[in-house]
């Protein structure tokens, strides 16, 4: 996961730019050190343990033999306008992310980016850490800079949830056993949907579905983008197309998990249709199919999918063709982290997990139910 916030530098002239950056960087470093005490897994490194007969191995987080989380300060001669004013997201944004924490200083702005291995945490956990980092940063103004005394309002729960036996991955030293995926050259564009547009799509979806079921705003918007991308791809009517949601499993589990449970507790909601059916039926038809998939995504369904995967493990599902993959969430608190610079100008992401048809949903900056979509497609 690679996400970050773009800020404008303070322009009141009360502090010199150099002094501002030095103060900001030091406070961020101090805040990061404290945040990692609470989220100690993020200071570790993934490591493997091969079985005695060398037939399989397990993966674990090694917090003892680790150099810790990195902190990088970089400079760029770009401006905030160069980033947000471009028709397509500039490729240079991908350089704002390393495998740790990177602060990129622009001519008139600052980009604060974080990178986290997705096998360690999901989007809920990522933004929990990001917002906790901001909370610690802000606390330095109120507790005489002694952040060692600081207690998080919503600390992470790091206890493991038992899902049965530990799965051992097949091991082979042959490079052919490790599939390699070629990086696709994609174009990224940010699409903004005002709160009025989102409400209109939701109303239309519920009217056309012909049921009393309440289709959500995100399901309606996802149906709209699924149909739009499928139409743009000019596929044959008898071909299949798939739309996938990333769903948070915490509230679906029995018993449900608290939202501050740190880790990967997500699962895929998969809806498939013939291209002809998707485009020839009304918009509400697609929205209802997505809604039904979400309703049926229960604890029992999640457990069944996991058992099936363990019987036949594969990591190729993310790279299927004719797929629209809706990730992230407009309900994450992405504009709540300010780091003393006011509300961020925009949210941007790095190169990780981007394929043709990947869509990420962000809250609109103005709030009120507005949504921004980051859409990645082949040229």
A few lines on this structure:
This protein has eight helices and 14 strands.
H-E string? EHEEEHEEHEEHHEEHHHEEEE
Architecture (CATH level 2) name of the largest domain:
2-Layer Sandwich
Write the CATH homologous superfamily of the largest domain. Answer: Chloramphenicol acetyltransferase-like domain
Largest sheet: 6 strands, mixed
Q: What is the domain total for the residues?
A: 2
- Overall pLDDT metric: 88
CATH level-1 class of the largest domain? Alpha Beta
Q: Tell me, what's the shape?
A: globular
The SS-based structural class is alpha+beta
Overall radius of gyration:
22 Å
What is the count of β-strands?
14
GO molecular function, one term: transferase activity
Protein name: Acetyltransferase
Keywords: Transferase
InterPro entries: CAT-like_dom_sf, Sec_Metabolite_Acyltrans
Fold topology:
Layout lengths: L1 E7 L8 H22 L6 E6 L5 E7 L8 E5 L4 H5 L16 E5 L3 E7 L7 H17 L29 E2 L16 E7 L1 H15 L7 H17 L6 E9 L17 E9 H6 L2 H13 L3 H13 L11 E6 L17 E4 L8 E6 L7 E7 L2
Parallel strand pairs: 4-5, 9-11, 11-13
Antiparallel strand pairs: 1-6, 1-12, 2-3, 3-7, 5-6, 8-14, 9-10, 13-14
Helix pairs in contact: 1-3, 4-5, 4-7, 5-7
């Amino acid at each position: 996961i690679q996400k970050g916030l773009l800020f404008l530098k303070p322009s009141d002239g009360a502090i010199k730019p150099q002094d501002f950056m030095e103060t900001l960087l030091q406070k961020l470093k101090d805040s990061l050190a404290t945040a990692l005490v609470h989220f100690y897994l993020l200071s570790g490194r993934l490591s493997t343990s091969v079985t005695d007969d060398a037939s399989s191995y397990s993966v674990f987080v090694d917090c003892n033999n680790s150099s810790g989380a990195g902190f990088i300060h970089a400079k760029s001669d770009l401006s905030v306008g160069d980033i947000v004013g471009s028709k397509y997201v500039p490729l240079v944004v991908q350089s704002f992310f390393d495998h740790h924490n990177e602060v990129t200083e622009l001519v008139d702005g600052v980009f604060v980016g974080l990178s986290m291995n997705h096998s360690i945490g999901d989007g809920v956990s990522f933004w929990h850490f990001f917002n906790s980092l901001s909370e610690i940063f802000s606390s330095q103004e109120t507790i005489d800079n002694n952040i060692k005394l600081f207690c998080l309002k919503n600390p992470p729960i790091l206890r493991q949830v038992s899902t049965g036996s530990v799965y051992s991955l097949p091991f082979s030293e042959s490079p052919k056993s490790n599939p390699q995926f070629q990086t696709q050259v994609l174009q990224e564009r940010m699409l903004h949907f005002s709160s009025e547009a989102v409400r209109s799509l939701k109303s239309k979806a519920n009217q056309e579905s012909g049921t009393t079921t309440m289709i959500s705003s995100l399901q309606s918007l996802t149906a709209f983008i699924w149909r739009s991308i499928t139409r743009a791809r000019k596929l044959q009517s008898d071909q299949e197309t798939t739309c996938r949601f990333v769903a948070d499993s915490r509230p679906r589990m029995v018993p449900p998990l608290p939202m501050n449970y740190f880790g990967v507790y997500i699962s895929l909601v998969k809806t498939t249709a013939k291209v002809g059916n998707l485009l020839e039926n009304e918009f509400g038809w697609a929205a209802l199919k997505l809604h039904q998939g979400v309703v049926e995504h229960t604890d029992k369904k999640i457990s069944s999918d996991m058992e099936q995967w363990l019987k036949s493990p594969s990591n190729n599902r993310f790279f299927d063709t004719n797929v629209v993959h809706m990730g992230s969430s407009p309900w994450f608190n992405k504009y709540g982290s300010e780091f003393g610079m006011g509300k961020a100008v925009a949210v941007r992401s790095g190169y990780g997990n981007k394929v043709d048809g990947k869509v990420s949903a962000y809250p609109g900056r103005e709030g009120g139910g507005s949504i921004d979509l980051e859409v990645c497609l082949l040229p």
